[in-house]
Amino acid sequence: MTNRTRDQISDLHIAREDALPAPSELLAELPCSAEQAAFIAGSRDAIRRILRGDDDRLIVIVGPCSIHEPASAIEYAQRLQELARQTSRDLLVVMRVYFEKPRTRMGWKGLIYDPSLDGKGDIGEGLRTARRLLIDCARLGLPAASEILDLVTPQYYAELLSWGAIGARTVESPLHRQMASALSAPVGFKNPTHGSVDIAIDAIHVAAQAHRFPSISMAGQAIVVSTTGNPDAHLVLRGASGGPNYDEQSIARACAALATSGLAPRLLVDCSHGNSSKDYRRQPEVAAELARQVAAGSHAICGVLLESHLVEGRQDIMDGRHGLVYGQSVTDGCIGWETTVQTLDALAVGTRQRRERR
């Protein structure tokens, strides 16, 4: 095929192509130390023990809806590390460090895709910033969690995660399910927006199986990956368009479905999204109800998710970074820092009360 012939039928909607560094180049530029790697491995093991019921603490995945401002993210991480230390007997605190945002229509797609918030889309710089933040979390001794949205970008940073999520909009995707089978960290599958727990359970089973699929190598070459399956996939209840699913009856039904499918009847609950009716101010109410269930003896709930930042609420991006309130979300609304402290304290109390019932 000549270039003229190819130009008639190929790449008709591509404006330009920009080279990315190979994953191995970025890993060499921003390496993970042996001490940091040991910390991440230990954090994953701790999460696995809680998921299995061998550790009676609660996993608390808490942090900004999405990271847009590295400086405030680091300040948040520093504060959270101290709070994690104070509550470590009852909670395993993991920072939510989300870099990619699924959009129903359009909007800011996340730090990796648009790190300067101006629409220029310097993805190479976004990947550097994301990796740098995760290394900073590991240096602080704070486990990190993120949603895995893209099928290529995990090669640049996924080894730094202690927990990963497959979201409500991608849980039905065969590509995300097989990609999850390759991830080294435990992975939570959220129920889809319409609420079907069965779909997430199917995803858990698929991710646990071996797969072969195309990917890119650390050197940036096209390869076929053969996986062994991820044995640490689990369910996350996030509510639905029809209403929340964090009440006792909904959790009991979800656990019954897990058990019927041959899975352990244990799960995480997202206090935001459908469970808070998309009102960030209701997250503490959801967490309080979950703490009550835990205190009453529930062992089905092994973790919660919260959207939290330094400053409560949210703001719109108007002119890049200009004029933004420091430490306030630019995507979903978040509870503020003081409310975060109070909410984690309530969850810790619930865990202690459950322990005392034995």
From TrEMBL:
GO biological-process terms attached to the record: amino acid biosynthetic process; aromatic amino acid family biosynthetic process; chorismate biosynthetic process
The cross-references to Pfam families, in alphabetical order and at most eight, read: DAHP_synth_1 (PF00793)
Q: What class of enzyme is it?
A: transferase
Q: In which pathway does it act?
A: Metabolic intermediate biosynthesis; chorismate biosynthesis; chorismate from D-erythrose 4-phosphate and phosphoenolpyruvate: step 1/7
Per its record, the protein catalyses: D-erythrose 4-phosphate + phosphoenolpyruvate + H2O = 7-phospho-2-dehydro-3-deoxy-D-arabino-heptonate + phosphate
| One cellular component (GO) term of this entry | cytoplasm
Sequence ranges assigned to domain DAHP synthetase I/KDSA in this UniProt record? 49-343
Name the NCBIfam families for this protein.
Answer: aroFGH, PRK12755.1
Q: What task does this protein carry out?
A: Stereospecific condensation of phosphoenolpyruvate (PEP) and D-erythrose-4-phosphate (E4P) giving rise to 3-deoxy-D-arabino-heptulosonate-7-phosphate (DAHP).
**Name of the protein:** Phospho-2-dehydro-3-deoxyheptonate aldolase
Q: Which organism is it from?
A: Caenimonas koreensis DSM 17982
